[in-house]
Amino acid sequence: MVELLAPAGNFISLSSALKNGADAVYIGLEDLNMRVNASNFSLEDIKKASEMTKEYGAKLYVCTNTIMKDKDIEMLKDQLPYIKEYGADGIILSDISLIELASQNGLEAHVSVQENTTNFYALKTLERLGAKRAILSRELSLDEIKEITRKLKESDSTIETEVFIHGAMCMAISGRCFLSYGLYGRSANCGDCLQPCRKEWKLSFEENEDDDVINFSDCDDESFIISQSYDDSYRTNFFSPKDMALIEHIPELIEAGIDSFKIEGRARSPDYVAAAVSVYRQAIDLYYDDPDNWQFNPEWMEELMKVFNRGYDTGFYFDTPYEISENNQSKFIKRDIGKVVNYYNKIRVAELKIWDDLALGEEIMIQGPTTGSITHVIESMQIDGKSIEKAEKGSNVAIAIDEKLRESDFVYKLVPREE
Predict the structure, then answer these.
(1) I need a surface site. Which of 80, 229, 330, 332 has the fewest CB within 10 A?
(2) Is the separation of the CB atoms in 310 and 266 below 8 Å?
(3) Pairwise CA distance, residues 28 & 8, whole Å
(4) What are the distances in angstroms from CA 270 to CA 6, 98, 206, 417?
C-alpha cells in the first residue's frame, strides 16, 4: 500500500497529520532544513514527536536537506546518533555524503527533491550508495515516472520512489532558486526563502523595433500573464505558480508504482495539514477498497479549497503548467476568537473564553498540540446553564462537542472570504 506522507512544522500540525491518517510525517531539524521560517524541532522535540508517531503506528522522517558546508556536516554527525536513539526512522537529505552517515547510524537515507532526481540511472547510483528512497523531481511527467518505476522493477531494484502530490510549486527547478538571496541575502537553498516570487511584479518595456517576440506556449492567450494597472503600468504574478493538487488522479498515481505520496507544507497551518491528509487518506483508502469503481468525490476539492491555497492545477504530471496565482484563494478566513478553558469529559462539553461574538450555526476551528486541528459547527451553547443563540465577546460559554479538547487550545471562527 502506498505511504501517505504529511508535513509538520510544529506539534499541532503533527497531531493533525496523525489523527487524520498519515502513514508517516516529516519534520525539520533546527538549522539544517529547508523551512527556517517554520517552527521546526529540536533534538529533544524529536524524541516526543517519535513517541507520538509510534502511538499511531506511523513513521517519522527528519529533514536535513539544506546546502551543507563542513561545519554543518560536523554538527549533524554529532546529532545523528541522537536522532536514531530518539526514535526517528530516517532523514531526508540533499547532500549525498550524508547517505553513508545515515546508514552508519541505522537511519534510512531519503534523497531530497533538491537533488533533482529525474531518471532511472540516477536512482540506481543512489541505491548503490545506500539510499533507501529518492524523492523524484517535480518536473517529471506521470509517463516519465511510470517509465522509471517500470525499469526499477525490471532490474529488481529495492530503492523506493516518492513524489509530491499536493502543495506549493516553485518557480525554479527543484527549488534551486537564487531570487530571495539576490534580493535580500536570504538563501532559499539554506531554507530561508522570503518568496519574492509570490509578490506582484511591475513590468517596464524598452521599445525596440528590432525586437521579435514569439509565443512558443501552447496557450494562445498571452494576457493571462500581464495585466494593465490603474497607473497604466503592467503588473504580473508570473513568477508564482498555482499549487499542485492530484486528488482527482489517485488511481493513476497508485498504478504508476510509486511508493510514497508526499504532501508539501511544513510552513503551512495545522488546518491545512488536517484537511489535506484527511482528503487524500479517504481517496487512497477508497481506491484500495474497490479500485474498479473508484470515483472522485467533489467534496474533497471543496475541503481543500477551504484552507490556504493559491488555486490548484496538476503541476507537470500531465502538461507544462502555465497558470499563475495571485494570493491565498481559500474560501474562509480564520478569525482568532478565544481559547478553551476546560473540557468536561463525562458530558462532552467544552468551556470557551471568547473575545469575539459567537452564534449558533457558525463554524469554529480548534487547534492544540494534542488536539491537532478540528472543525465544529456550533449547535448548542449555554451560559450559566441557560441555552442561548448568541454569546457576546468577553463571555465564558459552554458548547457541546464530542471530540475532547484541552485547556489553552486555540479557538478560531471560520468567516467566509468576500468574493
Answers:
(1) 229
(2) no
(3) 8
(4) 11, 30, 46, 19
CA distance linking residue 171 with residue 57, whole number of Å: 36
Position with higher pLDDT, 315 vs 52: 52
CA-CA distance, 163 to 112, in Å (whole number)?
10
Q: What kind of architecture, by CATH, is found in domain 3-171+241-313?
A: Alpha-Beta Barrel (3.20)
Query: 25 and 283 in contact (C-beta within 8 Å)?
Result: no
Determine the Cα–Cα distance for residues 137 and 140; give it in Å rounded to an integer.
6
Residue appearing with cell numbers 481506491: 287
Give the rounded distance of the alpha carbon of 116 from its chain centre. Answer: 19
DSSP-derived secondary structure for 188-229: GGGT----GGGSPEEE-----TT------SS-S-GGGTEEE-
Q: Which residue has 484563494 as its cell numbers?
A: 329
Q: What share of the chain is helix, strand, coil (3-state, %, to 5)?
A: 30, 25, 40
Residue type, 174: S
- Range from 156-160, 181-185, 201-205, 253-257 carrying the lowest mean pLDDT: 201-205
The backbone torsions φ and ψ at residue 344, rounded to the nearest 5 degrees and listed phi first, read -105, 105
Query: How does strand 363-368 pair with strand 410-416?
Result: antiparallel
Cα distance between residue 109 and residue 133, in whole Å? 7
Report which of 356, 352, 341 is spatially closest to residue 394, judged by C-alpha positions: 356
* CA pair distance 249, 239, nearest whole angstrom: 26
Stretch(es) of the chain classified as CATH 2.40.30.10: 332-416
Q: How far is CA 346 from the centre of its chain?
A: 36
**Residues 7-59 pLDDT 10s:** 999 999 999 999 999 999 999 998 776 555 556 899 999 999 999 999 999 99
Question: So what's the architecture of 332-416 in CATH?
Answer: Beta Barrel (2.40)
User: Within 10 Å of residue 387's Cβ, how many Cβ atoms?
Assistant: 10
Q: What CA–CA distance (Å, rounded) separates 356 from 156? A: 61
The H or E element spanning position 62 is strand 59-64
Residues forming CATH 3.20.20.70 domain(s) in the chain: 3-171+241-313
Partners of 226 in the β-ladder: 236
Q: How many CB atoms lie within 10 A of CB 353?
A: 15
Cell numbers at 256, concatenated: 504508476
